[in-house]
Amino acid sequence: MMTAMLSVPALPSSTALTLAEVFLLLFVTLGPPLKVPALFLQATSQIPEPEARKLSLQVFLIALVTTLAGGFIGRLLMDNWHISRPALLMAGGLVFLFVSMQSVLGQYHAHPPAPAETDGKPKAFSLAVPMVVTPYGLAAVIVLLANSWSHLRTMEVCALLLAVMLLNLVAMYFARPIMRTIGPIPLQILGVIIGIMTVALSIQIILGALTQMGVL
After folding, report:
1. How many angstroms separate the CA atoms of 13 and 30, rounded?
2. Where do the domains of the chain lie?
3. Rounded mean pLDDT, 148-157
4. Is the pLDDT of residue 116 over 50?
5. Could you list the residue ranges that cross the membrane (predicted)?
6. Which of 35, 76, 151, 188 is packed most tightly, with the most Cβ within 10 A?
């Protein structure tokens, strides 16, 4: 009886995230594209631009496959461990809140350079994880897939994930012209604004989990 109850798909509710909110959540946790140009340029400044652009394609593919695989594996483990969706939603909301606060405060701290190989060429996997595939970003994907109530919703989440990864690819591919034209300051300001909005979104996720649990 308990197993049958746990296998029932989740149903959409008033606390479910809209597609716009899903996109925002993925946008600010994976990469995000606003930070990627500066980080990618910092990691690839010692190699020619054509080689850096080729590397950006490799990073994109690794990040996309890693995120999708990690998201579906996490969802499978959640079902096998009988973790309820509200509990996972609450855990994800707490992680998002903590990370959102770090994201806002982290704008005022220098980011360490990405790891590089001994010959000075950065590794594609080291750039993909954790520069693009952040731990909290992967947690976001797991929560979103676990709370999917239909195949259509799952496909929509995957499509939005692909869109965010493509934005990361554009940010890496054109990192040098972006940084030459815009510079780091506007990107930092936008990062702070989105970070503040993410704090509010994280609180909304927590309130949604409490509502599903019947606490509110």
Report:
1. 26
2. 17-108+132-213
3. 92
4. no
5. 55-74, 86-105, 125-145, 157-175, 187-210
6. 35
At residue 40's C-alpha, the angle toward residues 144 and 195, to 5°, is 45
DSSP 8-state symbol, 116: B
**Angle of the 19-29 helix axis to the 135-146 helix axis, nearest 10:** 160
Question: What integer pLDDT is reported at residue 160 of this predicted model?
Answer: 97
Per the CB < 8 A criterion, the answer to whether 144 and 152 are in contact is no
Q: Locate tokens 């690839």: which residue?
A: 44
DSSP assignment string, 119-163? TSPBPHHHIIIIIIS-HHHHHHHHHHHHT--SHHHHHHHHHHHHH
Question: What value does the mean pLDDT take over residues 126-143?
Answer: 87
Does 184 sit behind a cis peptide bond, omega within 30 degrees of 0 on the bond before it?
A: no
CA distances from 62 to 29, 101, 162 (A): 17, 28, 12
216: nearest Cα among 45, 125, 86 = 86
Nearest Cα residue to 65 out of 22, 135, 128, 140: 128
